[in-house]
Each structure stands twice: as C-alpha cells, then as structure tokens.
Amino acid sequence: MSRIFGIDLGTTNSLIAVMEGERPQIVADPGTGNPLLPSVVAITPAGEVFVGERAIAMEPHLTVERDGRMHAIGFEGGEAGAVVRSVKRYMGLGGNEVAAEDRHRYSFADFTGPVVRFAIGKRTFTPSQISAEILRALKARAEAALGETVERVVVTVPAYFNDGQRQATKDAGRLAGLDVVRLVNEPTAASLAYGLHQMAEGRVAVYDLGGGTFDISILNVKGGIFEVLATNGDTHLGGDDFDRLLVDLLLADLPPELRLDRHIWNSARLAAEAAKKRLSDRDEAEMSLKLPDREVHKTITRAEFERIADALAGRSLERCRMALADAELRAADVDAVVLVGGSTRMPLVRRRVAELFEREPLCSLDPDHVVALGAAVQAGVLMGSRGDMLLLDVVPLSLGIETMGGVMERLIHRNTTIPTSVTEGFTTAVDNQTHVDIHVVQGERELAADCRSLARFKLGPIELQPAGLPRVEVTFLIDANGILNVTARDQRTGREHSVDIKPSYGLTDEEIERMLEESIDLGEQDLEQRMLIVARNDAAQLLGALTKQLEEYGSLIQAEERAQVEKCASRLEGARNGTDRAYISALVEELNQLTTPFAERIMDYAIGRALEKKSVEELS
Amino acid sequence: MVQCPSCARPCEPRLTCPECGAPLGVELDLFAALDLPRRLALDPRELERIYHEAGRRIHPDRFATATPAVRQASLKSTALLTRSYRTLRDPVSRGRYWLELAGEKLAENNKRVPSELAELVFEVQEQLGELREAHNGSANALGAAIKTRRAELEGLVTTTQEELERNFARWDDGAGERQGLVNELKSALSKIAYLRTLTRDVDRALDSATAN
What we know:
By secondary structure, chain A is of the alpha+beta class.
C-alpha cells in the first residue's frame, strides 16, 4: 500500500511532507528546490489552471515596461480569468458570509447560495475546487520528486475551523482524487513536529499565527499522549490583516475608485507584504507604488507599524486568555510555548506572546515548515510506525440543537475530547405527527440564530401515535476529524432511521460527484501530467530492477550485451527527470526489449535452481 | 453476546475483544467501559492511567487501514471511553451519574435554592444588581467586593466537595445508614451545582462590567 503523506494546506503557502525513516521530511519542488508552494491559483478564461509561482505572475499588477510606459497586466477576475489567493479564507462559507472587505477583491457568482462561488471565465468555482488545484499540484510535486504515487494524505486545518470548514477541506481532497485519511489541527500537528513526546509531562501552548488564521491550543503532553486541553482562535485573523493595515496606509491619499482597482490594490499589497517582512529585522521600511500619473511613497518605522498593528496582536492574546481559562490554567502554569506560522516572525508578536506567558517561546523549527512536518508525523502514526504516540484533540466549538423559543441547547461542549458522542431522545408534540424537524447548530451564543447553522434534518416517518409517545434516539457523533455524524434509532422498534441531512452550507454529495465529472472533462493537462508520472515511475522501477539483476546475475550477461544495456540505461537515467513523456516512454520500451533475453536467462536459471533444491529436499 | 468485528469471535460485551484486543463498538455503562467496579471514590491518577492505556489501544488512529466495520467500532468505543473518562473524572458528574444508575433521580433544574444557601444567594444577587447599575467610579470598588465574594463561593464549593468525597468513601465501605447517606449525597450535589451556576453568573457580571 502507498505511503500516507502530510499536507499543510495553508492560506499563503502549502507544503507536502512524508516520513523518511524516523524523521519527517518536506518534499521540495524538484525543479526549483522550493519547499513552499504559494497557495495561489490562476484560472484562464479557457479554464486552464496554474498554481504557485506561475499563478503569482498572472496576478493583476502594474508594471513599467521597457518602453517606459505603465501597463496593467494579469487577470482581473470574472470573464478575463482570475488569480485567487488566500482561498482558505473562503472555505466552508456561505455566499452571504463573505466579509465586506473581501467582496471587491474577486468576482463572485452570488452572495446568497450555501457556498461561495467565484465567477471565472464562463464558469463558477467553489473554494473547495480551487483548493483541490493546490492539493493536486502538491500531489504532482511529490510524485515527480519521489517517483511514487500519492493517494492517501493527512491534511491540516486550523484548530478553530468549524464543521463546515472541515467538510469543505475534505471535499477539496476528494476533488483532487485524494483519500483524506485524517484532518489534523495545525497547532496539534506542530506540537508533534517539535518532538515534545520526549517530554515526561508538561503543558504546552502552541501559538499559531498564519497568513489568514489564528489558533491557540493548550496541550498536556504525557508519555507520548498529546491531549489538547483547550483551543481557541479566529479563522479571520492572520498575516493578511497586517498587510492590509499597510495597504490602507499606502493608498490613503488616493481617490476611493483607485483604491478599489484590482491592479493598484494588488500592487500595493505586494509592496505592503515586502515592507512588513523588512520591518521584522529593520527599524524602517519604504513602500512605493508607481501609478500612470503619479508615484506614491510612504516610509514607515517599526514603532509606527507596531502601534497600528498592536490591536491585531491584542486580539490574538485575548483568545489565548480564553483558552487558558477553559484549560483552567494560569499563563505561568505553561511549561513551553511554541510559535508556528510565518506571521510569528514579527517581533511585535514574539514580544507580546513572551510577555503573556512569561517565557521565551520555542522557535527552533522554521515556522513555515512545522505544521507540514507534524502532518507527516501523524501520517506515520496512522501507518502504525509510531505506536508510542497518540493525539487526543478537542472539538473547538460547542454543538447543539435549536429548541423551543430558538434557544440553543448544548449537547457537546467546546473543548470536549474527540471522538465523542451524545445520544438525545426526541418525541412528538402533537398526535399523529409523522416527522420531527431537527436543526443542528455550532457556536457559543445562547440563541440558535446567533450560532452557525450546520444542518437540518427530518426524523421519520414516525408511526402514528399520540403526542409524546414515540421515542426516537438520535446520536450525534463527532469523529477524530472534528466532523459531525448523525444516526437515529426508534427506541421501541430498535429500527434505524435514515437521517437525510441537508447541510446549511457547503456542498451536497451530488454536487461533489458532478464537480468530479467536470474535472475529468477539463483534465487534459492533468492527464498529461499523470502520464508523465507513470512513465517516470516505470523508468525508476526498470532501472532499479536492472541494477539489482546486474549485481546478482552478472555472470549471465555477455560483456558486449552488457555495454549495450548500460548505454541505454544511462540515457534513460538522464531523461527520466525531464518532462518529455514520449521520450521517456520510448527509452523504457527500448530498454525493456534490450534486456528481455537477459531476463529470460535469469528466469531459467532461477527455475533450474529451484528444481535442484527441490530434488535435494525430496532426497533427504 | 456480541460478535467481534475484527476476529468474528462471539464475546461478552466489553470495551475490547478479549481474544484479539480490537474494540467491540458496543454501548456499556460508563464504569464498565473503563473496566471499573461501580465505586463512588476513584483515584483520578488511576483513572487517567486507564484512559490513556485504553486510548492507545482503541483510538481510530490505530485502525486507519482496517475494515470499515472495525473503524466504526473503534470510533464508537473511543467516543464511549472519552465520555466515561470525562464523566467519572469530575466527582460531581460522577456522583450524579452514579445516582442515576442507582435509580435515584436528582432534580433537573437548579432553580430551587438550597435552604442553607438562601441568605448568601440573596446577598450575591443584590451585589450583582448594584454592579450592573453602577457607573465607572463606584464599579471598581464593587468589583473588588464581588471578587472577594467569588473567592468565598469557591471556598464553599471546595468544602462541599470534600464532604461529598468523604461520603463517597463511607458509601463504598458500607458505613452509615444507607438511605440517609444517599440523601446527603444528593443534597451536596445540588449545592455544588447551584454554587457553580452562581459563580458563573458572577464571572459573567464581572466580564460585562470590565467590558463597559
């Protein structure tokens, strides 16, 4: 069976990693050597897809060409094709849940449906479909680099992702043709990567500030068991928000219509991001933006930046305090603090975290790599190679049902260890009622309407009986991925009821099936990519086998024949990491033919030996 | 008897199959799930040890490549294990669960004030009312007074809990008059539940006072 890979599907960058022996290893792009894949997806009007650096080059921006004139280049969105970045911000959201400041950034199909849809070219794309392209690119990268197929993966998600956001991530995996064996919370994965299982017993806080999301998890680590005590976070707080502060500053003096122009906005974003990074090791940074009729310059000092960014850092610390309270701990009770996510490179963030926990945080691992490394470790646990380790995660938000008067009745409290289940009895309110409607919600507010709707379902048909007599038991089970499963049973007859759940947000199974079919239609370039991988795998296998055969059965091949075989093998060796699929296939074919007589002689020899052995055994 | 989803042998309903060790995925009472006798006094460290040890063996992560039936059983059994641990770890929820198993019903709502708490509750509610009305200047002094109150409530919870655990041990040892002991357990449990609700009210009032 193929190995399980670990994937960090990040807001800004995504990575893929795998266990190599005892250690997790990031799989870098075999061409560029870059371990990070920018989570940026470009879709042309014709439906062609590009991911990563190539997609970034297609983002709308302003540039000065050699003729000295200013050009607006890249895909603006809508009919003209689009480049989507930070798609994770939109995962699992309904159309009406797109934040106001995000609405002008892309062309959306509508703001009412149960799923956000980007309008690109002549089609619409859900966030899961766009994320699937990132997953597909990671899969192709690992397959090209390692010459093995990637089928089963562990994918990380922010700990504070709700049921809908988790489901959308699983859907993305399915659309990419991957079996998502497990979703793991990012901070929990990070704690695995830090090798904290060697700790006899201790409490660990993982502060994870990524490109778009923030998580804090407090864990108790004891004898290889990682037990999450509490988690909290904000799925809309991350490096992007710090960039926006600088964008606003840079564009402050422009008229509003220019500020919303996608070419200008994105050029400003690039300048802002670069300035933010510079301010992590310098006291001052300059941002500049060339527009057709003017140039905008702004200089910002680190002190000024920290003054305007302090409220964002403060929001994350507030979440830390809430997590500590839920874990019934004081900040000083924490034995180690781990920093995760590229945004923790900001000195402001490091300082504020150190102040809160009264200790210097650990940051020996690259904050951009640590989640993917942890995902690979968890993949190792699932493959059975790490029997000493076990993750016990929690559900981040309470789950309940809407009761009379619209009050939310909590069935599973936040920070309950998962998997967990609760069984609740339901009955009828009027005589001969045939169905009971159940509305499942997730959140911490008192009224169901203020929580997030997860799903609605109808129990029934129920036998005709006076009110209050029927008893239907409904079991709400949250699995190790943090995803809800519902089953129902008639208590009197013991019969299982089918539960037809209609998710309030997200995709139905039928919609996913349809998207899968569409992606096969559109998958020409995918097909070519897949065939290249198959050819490379064939080459690797053939060359590997040949090396062994030449070593073991060297006596069965003539010098002249051997020279011919080796010449062809070395040509294939040189070609197999290239991209000319037809050439690789042709060489594989040629080498196969050349080595057939040799292979036959080996077979004859082996059969002869087996017969000899057998006759000796029969004799004795 | 149930059939083990992994080795197909018939066995007694337990957390795991005695033959192959795979989780059976059956519902059990929470004491049986942890293979414990129905005792009221439990050592939390021992409880944690049992929970971790069983978790290592039956968690779905151990069966990622098993058949769907075994995976489902692992999921169900682990959910049961978690629920058992969480319920029995806390003396109050353990006591409530034990009474439920013994067929003793505890009043569902905590609306009725236990008589020995009446005076205290009245004073606390009055203070909270004043805090809600208060303006910036006086709120600080009131807040401090309420924080002292909160500590007092917590102290009361601790002593009631100690009394509860002493009675747990007496019950397990077969000491004392049985029905009288059950009544004492019930009253201590109601008292703690009420005090916890009151402490939460105090926290909420303090939170909104600092937020304003």
